[in-house]
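Chapter review: from sequence to fold.
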Amino acid sequence: MAKRMIRFPTGLFLAYSRFTRGMTLGVRGAVFDADGRILLVRHSYVPGWYLPGGGVEPGEAMGVALDRELIEEGGIALTGPSRLFGLYWNARASPRDHVALYVCRDWEQARPPPRTMEIVDSGFFPAEALPEDTTDATRRRLAEIAGDAEPAAEW
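The token string follows.
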């Protein structure tokens, strides 16, 4: 006798999946200036220098999230297409977190870099002279972009 399978309505199954297997998604932008320097930001709530970026909101496309985060954290407005460099699993944030890394070379300073409760500093730095407390993950991503390291699967 064959077992009878219970079928859940699609909407119910998708809602259940979101709660039991919810995935989070973030974006980061490697913004290079004309001299090849990289934009880094320092947050108030964690130590170190990072590539600008943040979470993708529900219903938001990754490119829209990147545009928003670059304005919010660096006053940067993209004037040309950014290039998706890689997708990474960020197990340090959660077992279901992923980060999309974009390379951005066409941009303008739409407004002065903000100083807020979240962003306490920002600046462009040569790859060979990054601030001492630049995070290891940021250094690894920059080495991958430069072709000095193979792209990793994990952030």
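Two observations follow directly from the output. The CA atoms of residues 38 and 127 lie 7 Å apart. The chain has a mean pLDDT of 90.
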